[in-house]
Amino acid sequence: MACWQEDVHFANKVAQLCCEHFNKLSKKGKPQAQHEWTLLAAIVLIQQQDNNGKCLPECSMDVVAMGTGSKCIGRSKMSNKGIILNDSHAEVIARRGFLRYLYQQLQYAYKEEPSIFVYQEDINLCTLKNGVSFHLYTSHTPCGDASIFPRQRKMILWLSLN
Prior knowledge:
162 residues; alpha+beta; two-stranded antiparallel sheet; RNA binding; tRNA-specific adenosine deaminase 1; EC 3.5.4.34; metal ion binding
């Protein structure tokens, strides 16, 4: 049942899906073509089974969270009201969206609605369904500790956001 694991073009498909998703969004907040650029990060859901546990002929791929940005706000610009994000890097924004997605999916599972989770009433816990996986896409190497390894050990995906 290995789907994406055996696909040598999987990384390119994920990158293409993320770029297409980004391009469908409105122009508000996007960089100006030929003058500006930004970083893009997304979380992609891969499903190899349908909601009934049957194997899909091809795995489905959906962007469930996306973020853009490359800034950190200094302490002097922070708000006491919590309305300004300190770290607005693309990966951080995508992670925040991903957490919201997971919380929503958990609510669906507890309400016995279609979800990526299965609610196990006897132990009062949810587990991820078989055949579900998530993948992080970034248009550039992350900054900080996420980039401390030598380049030859990383796969770098370049992306034009025009």
